[in-house]
Design goal:
elongated; alpha+beta; 8 helices
Length: about 180
């Protein structure tokens, strides 16, 4: 309740129309009329508790998208907008379906990243001398997130497989060699 008990009593007793005042007090305190009437009864006022209006039951819309994929994306933690974009439907349609399934909304979308381009070998060499395994994984993870089904090519030829070889001895840093097999 927003108002104190004394303020509620004073407002109710000073009203021209006490029945309407219950609704006014309910609105001012952000509660339903029935709850305000119970509060007034608890404060010693003889009032009738109005019956609560039943809420209409809404049927969830019939999905026009791949439900299994939607559940998968929701489980990954994507927000409604991201899921809707990937499914090719309106956000409101997906959100209505999600609510109908009893699923909670995931965290809101982070600020949309600016258009990104993958660094070329020349840029990487200028900035770091050699690429670390962590940096390479970060680049591939970003590409995979935005283009999961994209084909990998090098000099216009498809890459069929990648082989990694790790060299390490106690006197030097580890070195990872990457071998690309053309398809």
């Amino acid at each position: 309740m927003q108002m104190t008990d004394a303020e509620i009593l004073q407002s109710y007793r000073g009203a021209k129309d006490p029945v309407k005042q219950i609704g006014v007090l309910a609105d001012l305190n952000c509660v339903k009329e029935a709850e305000m009437a119970r509060k007034l009864q608890a404060l010693g006022v003889s009032v009738e508790i109005p019956p609560e209006k039943p809420q209409p039951v809404r049927k969830p819309p019939i999905p026009t998208f791949d439900v299994a994929r939607a559940l998968e994306l929701h489980a990954e933690g994507l927000c409604d907008l991201d899921i809707a974009e990937r499914l090719g439907v309106k956000q409101s349609n997906f959100a209505a379906w999600r609510r109908g399934q009893g699923l909670k909304a995931n965290a809101k979308r982070a600020e949309k990243p600016k258009k990104q381009t993958v660094q070329t070998d020349q840029t990487v060499q200028e900035t770091a001398g050699a690429m670390s395994v962590g940096r390479m994984a970060e680049i591939f993870a970003r590409i995979a997130k935005w283009h999961p089904d994209a084909q990998v090519t090098m000099d216009g030829k498809p890459i069929a497989a990648v082989m990694l070889s790790s060299l390490f001895d106690s006197t030097a840093d580890a070195e990872v060699q990457v071998f690309l097999m053309e398809g």
